[in-house]
Design a protein that fits this description.
This protein is mostly helical and 306 residues long. Helix content is 56%, strand content 5%. The strands form two sheets. Strands 1-4-5 form a three-stranded antiparallel beta sheet. The longest helix has 33 residues. The relative contact order is 0.16.
Length: 306
Amino acid sequence: MVSGSDPGEGAGSGSGPPSGPDDSDEDGARVSGAPAAKVEHLAADPGADPDDEDPRSASISGPIQGTELRDAMIAFLLACAGVAALAGLGAFVPAVDRNLGALVAVVFLYVPVYFAWRRGEDLVSYGFRATPVRRGLAFGLGAPLILFPLFAAAFALFYEVVCRPGQSAFLHQLAMPGLCASWKGWRAVHAPGLDLGFLKLAFVQVVVIALPEELFFRGFIHEMCERALPPRRRLLGGGIGLALLLSSALFAAGHLAAALDPRRLSVFFPGLLFGWMRSATGSILAGTIAHAASNLFIRVLEQMFF
């Protein structure tokens, strides 16, 4: 159920620290611990309750407030530059290429740490926590259980169409390289190989791929976007609005840093789900679980059909 919401409420939205002790009113008088708007409010009504703030005081910005979108974009550009540099270096240095995933993970982990230090915050405020565990597990496991059967049907239909003999070159190129050559449709479906190698892949997907990306794109980028553009509507507590669209678009664009393949932009759609989970739970736990599970499920489907 989608409902209206106070832009300042809900998990995933936040604000910077309060304004400093030396804020000025319009006459330039220094008043300790009170924003100018609040001083004006009390001056107009001496009998007013000091805690009953004038709504205008909410717009008074502290030293780091009002910089959320700027910091989000700077962080995004820095991370993309780092990933692109590593990918380019990997073309000449085999060791970098072999460990590209781990090096990219370091970039996505370090950038939020740097901005947390720069903004005087900590990673907990960016959702780097497990709590609320039950809600995080419910969202992180429940959404895939509902969506994966639908995705499996869409996956099979997609390759059935784009890999059909005589299909146009444009549609044929939408498939991942080399997959159409081995596509045989439903008649060739077989059980996937869930062995020790798959467990290793699962560990890599959680620790090296999903967790760093969720901390960066949902923990920091989405948080900054929601602070700057508070959602006007919420679905099960998760914000629905411009912040979700923007953070998901940056998530998709960020995937072009390592390889300029337009098919990578399709991650915009799961990005919407992960961002909504971040907002609904206030944690990156659900998004990390769903992100890793989605990558693993695609691998399972590829093993089953190809």
